[in-house]
Design goal:
By secondary structure, this protein is mainly alpha-helical. It is 65% helix and 0% strand. The chain is built from 7 helices and no strands.
Length: 127
């Protein structure tokens, strides 16, 4: 299984921003350098498990939250995040988000079908 370090870094950044911490403040909490935190957040380094545990503790979150894009159970976590985000929306905003989401999914699914290579006809052996 290949880990998506860019996705992990994005989640670290999201959690850090949610806690209103700068990269320097997070680096200080986990005894790392600011450039190292920056590299982790950009997915430029393969963050180790012990480092990720320290970051999760410093951000008062779980490893699941940081690596959920790499887990089969990610759907539940992502649905929870979406639910939290949508709970603050007005009725009108929810309607717009619903319309945009439906259009986006339709477009993504149509492109996915177009991107599949066409089945090649079987060649008959010529001996």
């Amino acid at each position: 299984m290949q880990l998506d370090y860019k996705a992990i870094g994005k989640r670290v950044r999201m959690q850090r921003n949610a806690k209103h911490l700068s990269q320097a403040e997070l680096a200080l909490k986990v005894s790392m350098t600011n450039p190292h935190i920056s590299n982790i957040e950009r997915g430029e380094t393969k963050v180790s498990l012990p480092t990720l545990i320290e970051i999760a503790r410093a951000l008062d979150t779980t490893l699941d939250e940081l690596v959920c894009d790499n887990l089969p159970e990610a759907k539940d976590i992502l649905l929870g995040e979406l639910s939290d985000t949508l709970s603050s929306c007005s009725h009108q905003e929810l309607g717009i988000i619903t319309d945009v989401t439906k259009a986006l999914l339709q477009s993504m699914r149509a492109r996915k079908c177009e991107d599949k290579p066409a089945a090649r006809p079987k060649r008959e052996d010529t001996k």
